[in-house]
Design brief:
190 residues; mainly alpha; two-stranded parallel sheet; 7 helices; 2 strands
């Protein structure tokens, strides 16, 4: 079961790392993310510090999960990653509450979760975050200090995490392929 926990940890680390990179990769991405915060109701004055705080919290979450995964990948006893899971749960629950509020208000706000996007926040994002919460809860439940890892098991666990993490990051595109674009809602007011 420790390989499944390693997969959960690595998947979440990938998702949060891609999220930080997508927001901070260039000025246009950063502005898009900051603008999305104003669309969510944060004042223009507070959107830049909020953007920094969110991105820093995501980076801290990714770093805590990556550190535990790197130790596990070194094939020595891995410490518990429960602090990383707690951070991930807090972040995903917060994001889910914001998305739920936005969907409930029927306001169109572009998802800037992984950088600039044309996809408005919708129930799809609630589903995606539900999957992330399930991974977080599963990893939390399986996290135990200690244990040894075989190289083949680590390779399989990390490969599975990469594949699943890529599906999570590209969830908007996959959902649009399967179900088409999300329904129309009224535009947000700036």
């Amino acid at each position: 079961m420790h390989y499944l926990e390693l997969s959960c940890r690595a998947l979440l680390a990938l998702v949060f790392t891609v999220s930080v990179a997508g927001k901070a990769r260039n000025t246009a991405s950063w502005r898009s993310f900051t603008r999305s915060l104003t669309d969510l109701g944060i004042t223009a004055r507070w959107a830049p510090p909020a953007a920094v705080a969110v991105t820093a919290a995501e980076a801290l979450t990714a770093a805590s999960l990556i550190a535990a995964s790197l130790i596990a990948a070194s094939l020595v006893a891995a410490p518990s990653a429960q602090a990383g899971y707690a951070l991930a749960a807090g972040m995903v629950l917060t994001f889910t509450a914001v998305i739920w509020r936005t969907v409930r208000r029927e306001v169109t706000v572009r998802c800037a979760c992984f950088g600039p996007s044309g996809a408005p926040m919708s129930r799809r994002h609630l589903l995606r975050n539900g999957l992330l919460l399930a991974v977080t809860a599963g990893g939390w439940a399986l996290a135990r200090p200690g244990g040894t890892y075989e190289i083949a098991g680590v390779a399989i666990a990390l490969s599975a995490a990469f594949a699943a993490g890529t599906l999570i990051v590209r969830f908007d595109d996959l959902a649009a392929l399967v179900a088409g674009p999300p329904g129309k809602r009224r535009e947000s007011v700036r």
